[in-house]
Amino acid sequence: NQNQGQCEKGWKSLGLKCYYFSIDKLNWTQSRDYCVEKGGHLVIITSQAEQNFVVSQIRKTHWIGLHDLETEGQWMWVNNQPLKGTGVTFWYSAPGRPDEPDNWKEEDNAGENCAALGHEIGDTDKWFDALCRNLKQFICEK
């Protein structure tokens, strides 16, 4: 990749942005804080090209920078931009099953308030909401 020089070691480039794909697993809040410490933020996916790139780099579920922690059902990126404002969404949906997000309350009444690419069982090309305390790998962007 000819842009590789602009990203520090361990980060991958797409366009003018650099991405870090973690090996360690953290909960969503820890992941968010880690990215900030590194001078970035959890990934904010704003295009099909960006979605395709991050999906191409992972084999397992990873946290992304999307949550509805403040108001249930109002999904926000970590830069405080509403999901509705970005124009692209890649939530999982399947015939005969409840669509993501906010489709699961049995395990935790608080609901699933943090978003990840992929699920424990695969499907890394779609977004799933999950319990924020779950430990997952994560993607930072800067």
Automatic annotation (TrEMBL):
Segments forming domain C-type lectin: 14-141
CDD domains found in the cross-reference section: CLECT_DC-SIGN_like
Iron-sulfur found in the keyword field: no
Keywords: Lectin
Claim: Acetylation is one of the keywords in the record: no
Identification of the protein by name: C-type lectin domain-containing protein
UniProt xrefs under PROSITE patterns: C_TYPE_LECTIN_2
Molecular functions (GO terms): carbohydrate binding
